[in-house]
Amino acid sequence: MEIQAHFTDIQTVIVAELDSARRSIEAAVAWLTDPTLFEALLKAARRGCRVRLALLDDAINRRSGLNLERLRAAGGEVFWIPEGESGQGSLHHKFCVIDEDGVITGSYNWTRRASRADENILRVRGDAALAAGYSEAFAQLLDKHCLRPREPALDSRQLLRRLEIIHNLLLLDDFEMLAAQVSRLETARSLPAIAELLDQLQRRDWAAAQASLAALLARGLALMPYEDPELAALRLELRTLEAQVVALSQEQAETERLIQEFARRQQEALGDLLEESLRLRRLYWQRRAERGDATEADREAHAQAREDYADYRQSREEVEQMPEAPRLNPDQQAELKRLFREACMQCHPDRVTEADKAQAEALFVQVRAAYQQGDLDTLRRLHRQLKSGRPFADPATMLTEGDQLRRRVAQLRLEVERLLAVLKSLRAHETYRTLTGIADWERYFAEARQRLAGDIGRLRAQLEEENDDEF
């Protein structure tokens, strides 16, 4: 599974995801006025993707200037969701499901103005359960407004007979006849248990398929148990919030790691010159402040220079105490990020049950430390343990009571807000603003050394002038 939060170049990210679609796109967005995003949808439809678009039927969309008939002509489907009472919008979604496997959701509106706003999105790939939840939300939206024909009800008895035939064919290892029966089972893919069985059969995972079949046959006609729509919506929001918390935690760790790495590299490249420059500046203003004709401005400049030098000495000691991270090549850096993201999905404390939280917290601390220190070997080991053992239960499948789900959703909403505030603070950090504007760190440090050397030369000349003036 791949999961990431995006705060910049969001339009570019969405276009890239739409361009990657090969089978289907389901987008439910309140407004679509961005011609770039519309053209990406149109291009997907023209290459054979099934594109389905749900929009709010209001003046903004009707006057967008986008010719939605072009999308229909290319095979796409457009569903107009009527406004609610008193002009209140009845569509507040901003999500897109791609190839039944990827999800884009977040605060970003698909409008011309959105790229200039302070928005974010969550991009998830490889989470079929989350994608299925959003596809179901899309279907429910159409059903609510009677915008799609009702699918014929499945004949449960006929479906059970088909499952019995497939089970017997597996027992006989009769794989030639199996293919025909499996293809007829596709009509029931809307049932999660059948979808999972079909995936197992397509992977030729016969042992898992036999276990699934045994469970299905044991349940008899109860193939699609009823679930309260409110609980289904809460489960979807819970999965989304879990993914968002993990993505924001990853973004926080990455931002902190960048700030630390830049501070270390800056210390290595410029530390001696920076300290000498600040020392000479402090000495120069000290001499000026001690003169008999010193002004208040001279004394204030001396106090500031003394404070700057003390602050730098303290920060330099803190940087020198940081564990030195190993230098990783680009492939190793990419692997480090991938392993960290995958490990987070397995052990983040906000993705486990209360019973597992303490153990997950301890493991997450190790994973995070290994990532920030660039300790690829340790992260590989922790990743293997998590992938092979799968030690923690999924709370979205463990929580069955509505009150528990509501409490969990409320907690994660608060955690998302906290993480967004932390990220906003980190991105406002002076070091982060500096490093994000630098394309080549080595060149930047080389030019900075040259400037500092010139400053030191000028400060020494000024000090010599001060000495001459005293005699």
Structure in words:
The structure is a single chain. The protein is an alpha/beta fold and 471 residues long. The chain has three domains: 2-150, Endonuclease, Chain A, CATH 3.30.870.10; 156-219, no CATH class; 242-263 and 326-435, no CATH class. The protein has 18 helices and seven strands. A seven-stranded mixed β-sheet has the order 1-7-6-5-2-3-4, sandwiched between helices. α1 packs parallel to α2 and α6 runs antiparallel to α7. The longest helix has 62 residues, at 229-290. The N and C termini lie far apart (74 Å). The model has no long low-confidence stretch (mean pLDDT 85).
At the fold tier of CATH, the topology name of the largest domain is: Endonuclease, Chain A
Q: Radius of gyration from the CA trace?
A: 30 Å
The end-to-end distance, rounded to whole angstroms, is: 74 Å
Structural class: alpha/beta
The share of residues in extended strands comes to 5-15%
Please indicate the count of domains: 3
Continuous helix count: 18
User: What's the mean pLDDT score?
Assistant: 85
Unreliable stretches covering 5 or more consecutive residues:
none
Count the E strands: 7
Which CATH top level class of the largest domain fits?
Answer: Alpha Beta
Query: Order of helices and strands, N to C?
Result: EHEHEHHEEEEHHHHHHHHHHHHHH
Fraction of residues in H or I helices: 55-70%
Q: What would you give as the CATH superfamily of the largest domain? A: Endonuclease Chain A
The geometry reads as: elongated
CATH architecture of the largest domain: 2-Layer Sandwich
The major beta sheet can be summarized as: 7 strands, mixed
